[in-house]
Amino acid sequence: MEALFIFIAKSSGLLALFYFAYYLLLRKETFFNSNRWFLLAGLITAVVLPFLVYTKVVWIDPVPVSNMGYSPAFTSHAIPEASFEIDWNLVSLAIYALGFTAFLVKFGIDFYSLNSVLKGKKVQQQADFKFIDTNENIAPFSYFDYIVYNSSLYSASELESIIEHEKVHSDQNHTIDVLISRIFCVLFWFNPVIWLYKKAILQNLEFIADSEAAKKISDKKAYQYTLLKITAHESCVAITNHFYQSLIKKRIVMLNKNQSKKRNYLKYYAIVPALVAFVLLFQIKTIAQEKAADPVTNIDPKGIESMDVFNISKTTTDAEIEERLKILKDKHQITAIISELKRNSKNEITSIQVELKSGKGTVKVKRSESTNGIDKIGIIVIKEKNGKISFNFSDDEQIKNIDRSDEDQDDELREVENIDAPDAPNAPDAPGAYGTPTPPTPPTPPAFPSGPMPQVPASAMANMPKPPTHPGNVNDKAAMKKFEKEMAEFEKKMEAFEPDMSAYEKEVEEVMSKREAIFEKEMEKYDIAMEKFNADMEKFNQQNNQNVNFNKRQYQIDMKQHAIDMKQYEKDMKQHAKDMKQQEKDMKQHQKDMIQHEKDMAKQEKERAKRQNN
């Protein structure tokens, strides 16, 4: 369950990474085919990369369980008391399953609707394309090699433009892109980024079709008029490449935009450092593995509440293994992962790897392999009266050594009693493992405040002129003359139209200034907490220096683990600083994009006016 949630989180993060890279760097470039493969590569990466994990093993000295004597005869499997708890993992899984089922049903309904449109229609085969001339009032669309349209709604020149457009969709298999994006929307329905990602894919496919179709049509202006006319058809078939697109002005702008410079291809490589950082931060698994398992001997019964021994031999069945793993998890909060499990023709285990992991991050791994069947693997779990749980691997000989003579126990108990407890700082009764103090917990750095950004005001586009309606009868000369006059007026209004984005820019600046003020206050509190943490660390180091002779081996283990934790904390802090800088850059880039957008619109209108005058 946990692995599923981690996979979904990583995949969602990768989808967001590729989408924002496209949105900030590539959406204004005319490399439409390259953008297509970039977006598809993002979807594939989001599924594949989370499975590619590099395991880094850090070897540490084993933890001895000593100075005590206990016999396996006292092994107990106490049944925990029943209590009602809400399993939030199951709740989350249930919510996800409901959403997944709903969108999967919607996907099936869309296929049924498409089939109803294609079923029973007369198909005209031409080269690699199958044309269907329907009487239904729907926007033209393509689905693999099918091209569907209503010829009665368009003139001959308009129909030529439409068919050339849909041929590009069909010839380049754009339907596959549409289906893949829909499947990802079903899988990641809860992630708003995937819906924006799907929209970006569909828009880019329209840019490709517009660009290729315009090369084959002599009258480029007539093609743009056809785009405006198709906006009147709002009935579109899902999971298809349809001619209609709501952002018609954006398509016309991209159709008339100059080709991007080749050096802008370098923008595609901007995603590489981000992917490398993702792998370094999330795809490298560090395991603290003990060099060897020490014998579990000299166990003091006075300090023990219970001891459990779990054995796995070559004859242990899968059901018995599952039962032991469940007891380890439920009773001792120890997660056991079985891998590399192989059996021979006699159903004997010939290979197995057991990985034990406690809630505090302690990991121990043992592997056994033999063609004649593995040696017995013992897992010993000791719960002390103070609540501490120790666990380790052992073999048959080590388990036998647990049962020691009373004479040996008395000698060791006398040795423990001779420790000058009052004068020894941080004696075994003090907090911390084996007499060592508990290291202070570093404060959590604040995150830059997040939240929705202001929406582009509707008033900015409210004054945009509406295109005139094309007359239904093209043979009506008076109506056609009136339509041409209205189109001329519409073009003049479009040339003069320029959206006012000043209010939107002001709202963005106000929101960011407020969030920066909140973040600065949180950083001040964090700096104070860090000063206290540094002071506590000095005290902790002094206490450890005093206790190093009390239990040297445990001290070394604790310090090694603490050093690993501190290195990870330092990496997290560096990444946090990078994230803050990147967020600031993104906001500045966003403002630059908005300013550039206004300039592009003004430049486009000037060029259009100039062409009209010529």
Please give a structural write-up.
The protein has 614 residues and is α+β, with helices and mostly antiparallel strands. It contains 16 helices and 13 strands. The protein has helices spanning 2-26, 32-48, 88-118, 156-171, 174-187, 192-216, 220-230, 248-256, 271-282, 318-332, 396-400, 406-417, 459-462, 477-496, 502-547, 552-613; strands at 54-60, 124-126, 129-133, 141-143, 146-149, 241-242, 284-290, 304-312, 334-343, 349-358, 363-369, 377-384, 389-394. The strands form four sheets. Strands 2-3-5-4-6 form a five-stranded mixed sheet. A three-stranded antiparallel sheet has the order 8-12-13. A three-stranded antiparallel sheet has the order 9-10-11. A hairpin with a 4-residue loop joins strand 12 and strand 13 (389-394). The protein is elongated and about 105 Å long. Residues 65-80, 292-298 and 402-434 have low confidence and may be disordered.
